[in-house]
Amino acid sequence: MMHGAVLSHSRSQNFLEAYCFSLGMDTSLRSQVLVLGSLFLVLLSPSCFAGILKTCQFDAIYQLGDSISDTGNLIREDPLSPFARLPYGQTFFKNATGRCSNGLLMIDYIALSAGIPFLEPYLNSDALFTRGRGVNFAVAGSTALPVETLAENNVLAPVTNSSLSRQLDWMFSYFNGICRDEEDCVKKLKTALFMVGEIGGNDYNYALFQGKTFDEVRSMIPKVIQAIKDAVARVVGYGATRVIVPGNFPIGCLPIYLSGFQSSDSTAYDRFHCLKGLNNLAIHHNKLLKHAIKELRKDLPNAIIVYGDYYNAYQKLLRKVELLGFDTKSTQKACCGIGGDYDFSLTRMCGAPGVPVCSNPDQYVSWDGVHLTQKAYKFMAGWLIHHIYPQLQCRA
């Protein structure tokens, strides 16, 4: 029921299909269906694009990154991590899997769209790693720069030593185990999708919360981008032919930052009540990353390298929170958390004794003040799949 009108299933499906189709139109045509898109955006979900990546015929996905995509590596390194126990995983899995959310992550929705089972974490010794699945090397809390490099700049990486370079070493070891030689690896990996990131956010998180100024963090960005660029070149050297390189979120919209850098100056905030200064750091990171991808495309013409626009996927979500069924009063509050204006405290985070969980996570964008809810990831994934798919140059 919408605006008092009752739609039959077939009519609803037709409208949904029309809206999904309109997403692929050019700007002038899209404007003609703006009203239709607004009325039925509430129906929009990854189901618009469910299975669309199957046309790419990927037989595996290999993921590098941090907590945005970790499906269980950190909890193998640190079984005492809060991500190893409820309420993490409570919505989908009814149990903690090491995912930093109440349920599925964007990589899970990407795998579903590609027809590939959820990625097992590399450090899960009980996992069956076979072709047609893929492997997740991402570790929550990891950094793009080696922890030793960060330490030289007086930045401590407190969660894990498994930075991007170590994950790449794991990947190399894994491929050595499944490939007879370099030629065999190239043959096997040409039908795989590689996700290099999101990574780098923690480099900035740690620096900022350890007292570094915005200018000091800004000076780190070129080094972080170089580490990501080198990682992409390395996976292409292994045999990757399709690589997605996601950018950073608008970090000034996250409760952890809204709490830690709260300002009495109303001009410090944008129309979404996000902190402009922090978002500008993310924008600069993404700008340099997109430039690096352009250079990589020139240097590696046989690989398709695609930018994953996490920033605009998140902002798209914020623009449509009410239509998508989120509680507009809780857009920037943590579902699992306590304290202050944003239900978040660094000293009493989600999973700590006595920290409450909201009754309906589907009404929240933020799960624990740092990571998003399954529902938020679901809609971001749908938007991303739509934007990434044409650039992957798959053939139906």
TrEMBL record:
Gene3D superfamilies: SGNH hydrolase (3.40.50.1110). InterPro entries: GDSL, SGNH_hydro_sf, SGNH_plant_lipase-like. PANTHER family: GDSL-LIKE LIPASE_ACYLHYDROLASE FAMILY PROTEIN, EXPRESSED, ZINC FINGER FYVE DOMAIN CONTAINING PROTEIN. The gene is LOC18592121. SUPFAM superfamilies: SGNH hydrolase. The lineage of its organism: Eukaryota, Viridiplantae, Streptophyta, Embryophyta, Tracheophyta. Keywords: Glycoprotein, Hydrolase, Signal. One of its GO terms (molecular function) is hydrolase activity, acting on ester bonds. The keyword Repeat does not apply. It holds the Pfam family Lipase_GDSL. It comes from Theobroma cacao (Cacao). Coiled coil: none annotated. Belongs to the 'GDSL' lipolytic enzyme family. It comes from the Eukaryota. This is GDSL esterase/lipase At5g03980.
